[in-house]
Design goal:
Number of domains: 1
Order of helices and strands: EEEEEEEHE
Largest sheet: 8 strands, mixed
Shape: globular
Number of strands: 8
Radius of gyration: 16 Å
Distance between the termini: 10 Å
Number of helices: 1
Helix content: 10-25%
Structural class: mainly beta
Length: about 130
Amino acid sequence: MFQKLEKESVAAKNTSVLPKFLHPPLHEPVNFFGGYYLFLEEGRLAYRDKEVLYLLGVAAVESSCCGPGGCIFIKIPGYVHTWKKEFTASGQYLSEIESIASAAEQKEITKLLLAKHPECGQVDFI
């Protein structure tokens, strides 16, 4: 669903390079077996002294053995280090993102996002 580009090597100063996150287009359906999903909103949530990148989306199942259905979801790539600093040849932006590994931080961030988007039924950290 999301693409994290490979880490690049850095020769100087022994600095670590974060994965680059490819921002998906908004309002463009992506088909899957039985339905589709699309992202409605890309947002940044202030959390402590950082910003959390999140994507609000909707998935729709149009044909399945159980009938049609759908859900609203949030995907969280992680903390923003650089915001849309680069872009690909096709014009999609790239940001440097740090994954959120702490279960306690994930729980707090989930609570904040569900308060902001109570219609959401699922929050995933990617």
